[in-house]
Amino acid sequence: MDETILELHGIRKSFASVRVLEGVDLTLKRGKVLGVVGENGAGKSTLMNILGGIIKRDSGEMLLEGAVYEPKNPNDAKKKGISFIHQELSLFGNLSVKENLFIDGLPTKGGVLVNYPYMSKRAKEALALLGVRVNVDKPIDSYSMGIRQMVEIAKSLLRDTRVLIFDEPTTSLSQVEKEDLFKVIGDLTEKGVSIIYISHVLEDVFALCEDICVIRDGKVIGQKPTSRLDKDAVVKMMVGREITDLYPYIQKNPGKDMLKIEDLTSQGKFEDVSFDLRQGEIVGMFGLVGAGRSEVARAIFGVDPYDSGSVSIEGEAIAPTPQACIAKGVAFVTENRKEEGVLLTKSIQENLTLVDLDGIRGKFASINKAKERSACKRIIDLVKIKTYDPAKQEARQLSGGNQQKVVIGKWLMKAPRVFIMDEPTRGVDVGAKFEIYNYINDLAAQNTAVLIISSEMEELMGICDRILVLSKGRLTGEMKRGDYTQQAIMEYAVMGG
Amino acid sequence: MRDIKTQNNRATAFLLRNITLLILLALAVYSILFVPNFASLSNAQSIASQASYLILVAIGMTFVILNGGIDFSVVAVINLGSVVGAMIMSEKDGLLSHSGAGFLVAILVMLLIGVAIGLLNGFSVVVLKMPSFIATMAVNLVFSGLAVFLTKSDTITGLPKAFRALGNSQFLGIPVSVFIALAAVLATHYLLSRTVFGRRVYAVGTTPLVARISGTNVKSVILRLFVLSGFFAALSGIVLTAWIGAGKPTVADDMTMDIVSAVVIGGTSTFGGSGTITGTVVGALLITVMSSSLSLMGLNWYTISTIKGFILLAVALIDAAKRIAK
Questions:
Q1: What interface predicted TM-score (ipTM) does this complex get?
Q2: How buried is A214 (Cβ within 10 angstroms: 0-12 exposed, 13-18 middle, 19+ buried)?
């Protein structure tokens, strides 16, 4: 029996004069999982924020179990049974697991003293329901993202949650944790909880969801049962055009050795890592979470220190500092754009010019505003950043994909000879991903040596000339294009230390 | 939702900076009309002189607060500079009492003291990785103590006329110190808002890790911020010592709150990354006009301090609220 638990009709929302949602209709069936997909900026977050009581809709109606649903604020939404698990979890790192579980309403003895024994007991029970057994007294930031997410889910189950909304839940999860999450979602739906699952990872959406709703430009393009859809159809609906190759590849002739890493070692992180990058080559680095890939990249660029080994460009050793690397033409996009890539409160121009400030110098150590404007315009056009005024708009107002383009853009100001990118397409929608792949190819065509670290095997197999695999801090495998198989790569990735 | 919040933040920030200016103008107008003796040439000159030395030291402090830090040692820079400078140039028993250019050497030494203490602070923060709060407070205690020790708590008088002219004389009715402050404001405003260094300062103050990965030498920038703070504190001390006409080891002792207030009221966030020199100037003027006005109204120093304290608290709360709203 497919009973509808939640219905949205004609939801409209504008911010100032910008129309974000233009009449969205959505249906969620009880005990089922509805996938919601769409490019960044399509309106998914706004829609979910309306559902979760964070903002108010302009018009349209929402029905929860047949009754009109108009949450006044997030607490109201929670009371009515709608819980939201955000991409950035709302947990307090230094508080214990049980305190986090009950943060919305600490149980008390006589209304004044906090009832810790009761909390411990209930916390253990709530987590056990999800198959999680941990010490509930330890602070929550001593646990992995996977466990933290389970705590967040348990938190929502302590109130009587009928609809659970997940926003990009798997971005920081390992493969194992992802499988645990899917299992939990399966259990929840069996118990009658209805789930809305927002994600960019289409494989997961297809695996989990009974229906998929595609949003584009503030409208629902279609909501159909998963059985009647395939990936290409969904991508076409999301983007509005055919994307023939998800992963564009161009034939190249790699040139001389550019970057040479020899026996790089950092105690506890990685050991004896050696590899080369040649001009015009795109090399991928795959590994599971914790394999040490980002650590290697950060050591190469001088962000974190390493213990032994050498890094050289065209035969010359480079000192392990970002400045030395930049002077030699190395660029580095880290995996954490919010904390390491972009100045959120500064304008797009200020962000774009940060690496090559000397390039916009005028007289007397000043900044030549005209040079700045034209240099930024060149990059914005090249990388296709969507902005209404790069001198005024702050980076934090951009979507994830556009922010990533700003980070990549600032490194393109001075044509790099070596470009290291750590998870360049994480949290980026399909359309922007394709654009990023295209200019990675352009970079290679201009003889830049590119190293891409990624957890998406398909992506690496799609665009790389060679794939290196790291496992537990060691380089365990290298494959050339033509020899790639998912099985072989995964075997290298799980090899012992 | 995100867009409206940031729009509101920008509107609030914009309003706050203009509110300070509007309050300043309102207060000035009110004082001219209703506060006895406010609207006199000598009071105007007095306000101008006081604002000048406050602006000078607050400019230096702005650089440090822009980085999310603080510099408590500016008091020591002024105190020690005042004392050592006087010891050099005093016509009574100064080290260079015979020399007509003694005061020039004194000025140079006072500036060097500011730079040296700034370097010490910078070193403590950047190399020893001490929080600026602790490091500058410790430095302040040591060097203020030194100032008292050197003079055995006495003041040193007999400063040369040429030196005292920096504080006392006027050009077209405007105290000379105003021109010094004006030059400093123009130079630092240009430095912060128009130069490559200024951009790096803002980047480091916003998210130092981003700046570092993007190739900025964060340690060098932070070191220079403390040197700037020490330098402008020294410049302020020169003007202040000239104004009071003596070397006094306790001359700057009660200034810290006014300096920090001037910077924070002027719109610089204590969390770093945003703020301007012109904002600090408005903040310093507001504090000086307020002090003058309230004291001419008959309030005593403690009451005035309490009022200033409340205003600082209110501004700090707004600063924090802005940050949370992000």
A1: 0.86
A2: buried
